[in-house]
Amino acid sequence: MTKHSDLNSAAIAAHCATGASHVAIEVVDETGSTNADLLARCATLAGPTLRIAGQQTAGRGRAGRPWVSQADASLMFSLAWRFKGPLHQLVGLPLAVGVALAESMTALGVPVQLKWPNDLLKDGHKLAGILVETQQAQGNDSGGVWAVIGCGINLLMPDALERQIGRSVSAVPWLAQMERNTLVAALLSRLAGVLAEFDDTGFAPFAERWNLLHAWQGQHVKILDNGQLLQQGVAAGVDHLGRLLLRTDGGLQEIMSGDVSLRLSGE
């Protein structure tokens, strides 16, 4: 199996599709957070930049939650991309990123589904998470908004780590065994194409693709905020802005992503 220490920027670039050839690729053995690294450098980046680390000691997910990383068991990277903006046009970006990752993995023989707003599921368990952070372009930039897109993928979850995070995560032997530079190149190639399209069109053209991958379509779900029930109903996919559509006794409700959590009603 290729180890994280064998990740190589030139090897990744060699396997990338033409549409990703303009992305700078940085590989480091260890860092605190690849998202934090790129956010601190947005003003000086020459263009799209992928930063990938073998291990992150301060990785994080939504709402500042920690993301547990263990070398060779997970793949963690961040991609800085400058959009034309303004900021409100990036609504739905995490969902479009989810579409890119899910379609990439399906093409690699690992079919996955999407959980609103930013998780990938394999056999009902969390396989990957997405964190998008933004920063207004400044300095010598010609306007627009930088988005730093962080992705954490559980390639293999040892029993000890599984107990540490307190939940079961499906191991994906095929992804874990795949040559790591080839895997990163496949994900980056699809991401670059999706982000370029999203910059021109917004989320609307991706809504149907997301709904085809929706893990909980037609299932009873509940919306929680810090453990408090806000809403419940039947999940009916997402609309053109990436809002979750919920069929309730009071009619169709549109839920905008925030720090709320989505759970199946029986959980």
TrEMBL record:
Enzyme Commission number, as recorded: 6.3.4.15
Residue ranges of domain BPL/LPL catalytic in the record: 11-199
Reaction catalysed by this enzyme: biotin + L-lysyl-[protein] + ATP = N(6)-biotinyl-L-lysyl-[protein] + AMP + diphosphate + H(+)
Keyword terms, alphabetized: ATP-binding, Biotin, Ligase, Nucleotide-binding
Keyword Lipid biosynthesis: no
GO function term, MF aspect, one: ATP binding
InterPro entries (alphabetical): aa-tRNA-synth_II/BPL/LPL (IPR045864), Biotin_CoA_COase_ligase (IPR004408), BPL_C (IPR003142), BPL_LPL_catalytic (IPR004143), Transcriptional_repressor_C (IPR008988)
GO cellular component: cytoplasm
Keyword Ligase among UniProt keywords: yes
Pfam families recorded: BPL_C (PF02237), BPL_LplA_LipB (PF03099)
NCBIfam families named among the record's database cross-references: birA_ligase
Record protein name field: biotin--[biotin carboxyl-carrier protein] ligase
